[in-house]
Amino acid sequence: MITVGIVGGTGYTGVELLRLLLRHPNVNVKILTSRTEAGRRVDEMFPSLRGHTDLEFSDLKIEALQKCDVVFFATPHGVAMNHAADLLSAGTKVIDLAADFRLQDLEQFEKWYGLEHACPEILKQSVYGLCELNREKIKQAQVIGNPGCYPTTVQLGLAPLLQASELLLKPESIIIDAKSGVSGAGRKASLGMIYSENADNFKAYGVAGHRHHPEIVEALGHISAHQANFESLIFVPHLVPMIRGMLSTIYVDLTEHAKAVDLQKLYQDFYQGEHFVDVMPAGSSPETRSVRGANQLRIALHQIQANKLIVLVAQDNLVKGAAGQAIQNMNLMFNFSEDAGLQGIGLLP
Amino acid sequence: MITVGIVGGTGYTGVELLRLLLRHPNVNVKILTSRTEAGRRVDEMFPSLRGHTDLEFSDLKIEALQKCDVVFFATPHGVAMNHAADLLSAGTKVIDLAADFRLQDLEQFEKWYGLEHACPEILKQSVYGLCELNREKIKQAQVIGNPGCYPTTVQLGLAPLLQASELLLKPESIIIDAKSGVSGAGRKASLGMIYSENADNFKAYGVAGHRHHPEIVEALGHISAHQANFESLIFVPHLVPMIRGMLSTIYVDLTEHAKAVDLQKLYQDFYQGEHFVDVMPAGSSPETRSVRGANQLRIALHQIQANKLIVLVAQDNLVKGAAGQAIQNMNLMFNFSEDAGLQGIGLLP
Amino acid sequence: MITVGIVGGTGYTGVELLRLLLRHPNVNVKILTSRTEAGRRVDEMFPSLRGHTDLEFSDLKIEALQKCDVVFFATPHGVAMNHAADLLSAGTKVIDLAADFRLQDLEQFEKWYGLEHACPEILKQSVYGLCELNREKIKQAQVIGNPGCYPTTVQLGLAPLLQASELLLKPESIIIDAKSGVSGAGRKASLGMIYSENADNFKAYGVAGHRHHPEIVEALGHISAHQANFESLIFVPHLVPMIRGMLSTIYVDLTEHAKAVDLQKLYQDFYQGEHFVDVMPAGSSPETRSVRGANQLRIALHQIQANKLIVLVAQDNLVKGAAGQAIQNMNLMFNFSEDAGLQGIGLLP
Amino acid sequence: MITVGIVGGTGYTGVELLRLLLRHPNVNVKILTSRTEAGRRVDEMFPSLRGHTDLEFSDLKIEALQKCDVVFFATPHGVAMNHAADLLSAGTKVIDLAADFRLQDLEQFEKWYGLEHACPEILKQSVYGLCELNREKIKQAQVIGNPGCYPTTVQLGLAPLLQASELLLKPESIIIDAKSGVSGAGRKASLGMIYSENADNFKAYGVAGHRHHPEIVEALGHISAHQANFESLIFVPHLVPMIRGMLSTIYVDLTEHAKAVDLQKLYQDFYQGEHFVDVMPAGSSPETRSVRGANQLRIALHQIQANKLIVLVAQDNLVKGAAGQAIQNMNLMFNFSEDAGLQGIGLLP
Predict the structure, then answer these.
(1) Interface predicted TM-score (ipTM)
(2) Which residues in B lie closer than 8 A to residue A196 (C-beta atoms)?
(3) Semialdehyde dehydrogenase NAD-binding domain: which residues (chains A, B, C, D) (predicted)?
(4) Contact state of C243 with D199 under an 8 Å Cβ cutoff
(5) Å between D192 CA and nearest CA of chain C
(6) Which of D204, D234, D289 sits opposite A200 (nearest CB)?
(7) Can you identify the CATH homologous superfamily of domain A150-316?
């Protein structure tokens, strides 16, 4: 059993971490902080937890967190980087669900998040926590930048093409038309998020620029075995009137090299043995509800013309796109079974 | 053509007034105020209005409003009462969609709204704007208190029983189990109203006490032809994951007098000729979507035991429950056809 | 490990049984029947199960089922009663999620379900599977009638009042205003159930009579310690535009005996130690989302007048109202921990 | 006043035609046919129409329809083509909301709809009813093929680029990622359309091929001033958990010619004076709710790289995408004001 702290427990990734960690066989959640709710029982705010925990929110005290084996930051961007050094010095590992340890490019970080990075040295040692592509490094990591939800779908959706012996897609052709449920925007009192503004409605947002764009560009560059440049890819997110779920529809032009390749087989082989990535039969249409509440990502390929491929990728933005993936990282870091606490089946209907 | 001002145009009743008034044949909307949005085009905030108006929000200036024939207050409680005297003195009529002129009982008003009433004398002369029950007074009124959404359903749902020659129901038996769409709570940035907190969810609220309770009690007292006391009625509102719509399920014990009465015929006769109250065939189940966007209220009776009656009442909370009824009041006050601007058919599906 | 068969695996209770049983530590699901889908993989129909099972639907073969320790019937009414004798003779226990073993009154069964009962003798020995109220009998049972979803909320919502040393409520005063998500109507291709007919809409249904009415009447009679008659209770179900979830708002008049009783304490004591019944603090408002996907029922009391009590009861209609409760019964019958396989936390948001 | 018949009044386009035509100042709806509901009042099936019509469904009788000035077919594909000759011979005009008169290419029609065309000669004379691009021909037409919902968004979204003096986009680069509310699939009792299968869910469908694909290809070919070939465009529709609304996100590569062109101005000039096409300010994000219930289509441009353009197009699939556009065609054919009966403002919220 390890002891776990969660900083920032009043948001949706916080309560999702609790939902999963309170049933994790190797974990004891000891601390849950909140600036505004210290002293209040967490099950008073989230009645779904009644009967499962007596935890109360507490103020963030670094000495208390230093006694944990690992601390999750389910906070806004810019919090984890201010506490990472103190925690590491005490031997406490850090998993940040925000963006502080996602981008290695400091300029991009400052441009998109409006923050100077507080610990560039730690950032350099941190590991980008996309488990399927980075497993060995994660096992050794002290600090994890848990990937953004959209970037998770894009990287897992394109990795087999990018890591083949020959580059199979044209980087400049990539178009990602992505759709997310509303919980992706977090638990905040803002006019744009209220029910009557979002129900029975559909729209694009962030077309002119979204923080996940530079993360996707940098991450695909790291994944690619072929020194490709992904700066001109197009990424357009949309908002779906549903609570959870994310679907990315990715359009790519294939290279000549792809002609000789059975792409369906390529993907199946690439993800052979993975617990949480499901390559569906060619021509399938993954539905977001098939992964509701589950740490699962499903991929389906549609090669509709000789040189055109559509990759459909579905996940639950709060699980494989956030809290579930963070726990998957923790499992790797502590040498637990990778699927410990993550075996739940999606809620359908 | 009359000139109209709207105070408080950024909420849902404000934009609903605009949707209806911009197509009203006898109305010219001249002024639309907002404390926070002065100078901004209204169709920038509500793109549904693009192509239908060039109005901009302006600061509330009483001199400008005094030039209008009528001013609607689509504001929080406590605004209209501070401006009514100035408007009346200039001959401008007032229709308040908030609660300032709903309760004649000042103690109740102060208890439930936490405000001392600013103009008790005007309150005395004001008229409660439930058109079907108060038509003649409304035609002469200078100030209208537009009824609350829940109270509208209850009064129209019970009036035929209360105004029969003998009292047909037992006042102390009344139970109102009411359900409303989320737009009834207005357009406010509050955590409790965000999409992910309300979608795919159902709950009761305000069980211990809701502001519409005293309004229902007072209004039923006025309607009743039999000096009955309604203080012990039970009213429990619930929140439905839909944008618009309200259904009240009203349970009453019938008196002995009711045995000789054909209640279905009683209701049909009572509402004979009304544009906006539809008595459906006995045993029907009015759906809220049948009135979506329409100034229409539908009633169905279920007499399930000799002395037990269930009255189902459906309306769109923003139309017959708010903006539509306010315009119906205006039509009466200015001697327009009562259904002018209110003939739209509900949006189904 | 016991072996389990499920008859009728293509409906929502079927797939929900699978979601829970596939992760149950003591269970091996061997057989899943479907008249129409025999030979098809179940995860092809329900992709949420991909990676969790290789089961295929098969035709119903009684010899195969007889080799199971227990068979669940997730079928329409009238199926289980035709196979119960064959299964019992082989020592296989039966849990019926339909109505075949819910009503002891054969006349009522035939009246409401239009079927002559196929095995009245077995019906007599069957046990009504409301675990919290019937635990000892269930442990010995060979055949379980799993309660209807609405009746579960009413019985657990009123049992403490009915089993107190003095009768605390007036049976003839009971009004149950119940609301259910759409999944309660099952997985059937019918016009009334399609998305565009149900979204953004609210309505009552079955006001003139619903099959759960006689079940509630009979069951309350059994629960009551005071020979009371419940035939005149009123039960009105409504349809909520959400997938899962059920809330019953129950209104009762209290007797004089209640004056001396702390009802909140009565309920807390009554359900002390129960895993799946949560008595919330007085004045709470249980939300359906707090139990989404969980085998949990939450109760809150509102005593709004000296002699008037409102009981709010929330559950997930597919879990505590159907598949979860069925598994809870199985756990009792096979002497497993009562919460085995049922410890999942509700999905919020 | 003209007399109007509607064939097939029980679907969503049928009831939407009624909603709009019953308030149209120049129209008298005389006949409404249904194979299955003959003799039933239409407001019994669609209670939203109570108080607005006494129409009953009738059997399809060609002699009766021949007395109408115009007949709308709100039927499945393949019905209108069997009655067009009879109606035209009597001087009755025909507006088909299905696909019988959309595709001039008979091979494509037979391939995608599985039907041999019943009246190829009439097809040749028929006019494709996209009013903004085909207005003069429509005014003279006897038979109109009302465009499909998706094709409407694509054509109006790309027409300014295709009809500029130089071709401004690369036809082979077009990718249409389209999203529709569930009502687009019609009012049919099918398992895939029920509430619990669609709510809180998102998915692509018809990726391998959708009937609107050939219509888009043919129609863009007609619109283009430059003999371009559009066969390799990509069209992927998705299903959104909302009743009404459609958003197409269209990605195109621009040609060198586009460098010298102010695209925003090009679009604004192109649609100058159009009632029903709204070019929003550059960088806007049209929401489907801004056109809910309105015959309105909104376009916004995002030129995110020198040679990359994203066109966002929103409409209500049942109005501008079906019934509203059909009435707009009728208005043109009978020389009514083009916006007669179509001036309603979108329902927001």
Answers:
(1) 0.97
(2) 12, 181-183, 187, 193, 243
(3) 3-141
(4) yes
(5) 8
(6) D289
(7) Dihydrodipicolinate Reductase; domain 2 (3.30.360.10)
Q: Which residue has the tokens 């003939």?
A: B343
pLDDT for A253-290, tens place per residue? 999 999 999 999 999 999 999 999 999 999 899 999 99
Share the mean pLDDT of chain C.
Answer: 97
Question: Can you say whether the dihedral through the CA atoms of A46, A47, A50, A52 is positive or negative?
Answer: negative
Q: Is B40 on the interface with D (CB under 8 A)?
A: no
B306 band by pLDDT with thresholds 50, 70 and 90: confident
Q: What is the mean pLDDT of residues A297-302?
A: 98
CA distances from C98 to C103, C145, C330, D333 (A): 11, 7, 16, 58
A49-72: b or e for each residue (b if 16 or more CB lie within 10 Å)?
Answer: bbbbbebbbbebeeeebbebbbbb
pLDDT for residue D267? 98
C240 and B202 within 8 Å at the Cβ level: the answer is yes
Asked if A201 contacts D289 with a C-beta cutoff of 8 angstroms, the reply is: yes
A149 tagged catalytic = yes
C touches which chains (3+ CB pairs under 8 A)?
A: A, B, D
Q: Please, are residues B96 and B14 in contact by the beta-carbon 8 Å criterion?
A: no
CATH code of the region D150-317: 3.30.360.10
* CB contact at 8 A, A270 and A196: no
Do residues C203 and B286 touch, judged by C-beta distance below 8 A? Answer: yes
How is residue D250 written in tokens? 């269209």
Residue B337 neighbours by CB distance under 10 Å: 13
For residue B140 the two structure tokens come to 């002469």
Q: Return d(Cα A331, Cα A337) in angstroms, integer.
A: 6
- Residues in D 216-235 with any Cβ partner in A closer than 8 A: 232, 234
The rounded average pLDDT for each run of 10 residues, N- to C-terminus, in chain D (349 residues) is 96 97 98 96 97 97 98 97 98 98 97 97 98 98 98 98 96 98 94 96 95 96 93 97 98 96 98 98 96 98 94 98 98 98 97
Considering only alpha carbons, which residue of chain C is nearest residue D11? C191
Q: Where are the domains of chain D?
A: 2-125, 150-317
Instruction: Provide DSSP, C90-136.
Output: TT-EEEESSSTTT-S-HHHHHHHH----S-HHHHHH-EE--HHHHHH
C-alpha distances (whole Å) from C266 to each of C216, C248, D61 are 22, 20, 70
Confidence of residue C144 (pLDDT cuts 50, 70, 90): very high
Q: Chain D residue closest to A173 (CA)?
A: D173
Question: Are D201 and A245 an interchain contact pair (Cβ–Cβ within 8 Å)?
Answer: yes
Quote the percentage of chain B above a pLDDT of 90.
97
Chain A residues whose beta carbon lies within 8 Å of the beta carbon of residue B190: 189, 194
Our separate counts of H helices and E strands in chain D read: 12, 13
Spatial CB neighbours of D82, under 8 Å, sequence gap ≥ 6: D118, D119
β-sheet with D297-305: strand ranges across: D203-204, D234-240, D175-181, D246-253, D308-315, D297-305, D277-279
- Chain A hits for B181, CB-CB cut-off 8 Å, are 196
Q: Are C46 and C15 in contact (CB under 8 A)?
A: yes
**Whole-angstrom Cα distance, residue A141 to residue A334?**
10
pTM equals 0.97
Q: Do B195 and A200 touch (CB under 8 A)?
A: no
What topology is assigned to D2-125 in CATH?
Rossmann fold (3.40.50)
**Residue A25 token pair:** 């066989």
For residues C284 and C277, give the distance between their C-alpha atoms in angstroms, rounded to a whole number.
Answer: 15
CB A152 within 8 A of CB A212: no
Residues making up chain B, counted from first to last: 349
Tell me if domain B2-125 and domain B150-316 are identical in fold: no
pLDDT digits 0-9 by tens, C183-205: 999 999 999 999 999 999 999 99
Exposed/middle/buried for residue C206 (C-beta within 10 Å: 0-12, 13-18, 19+) = middle
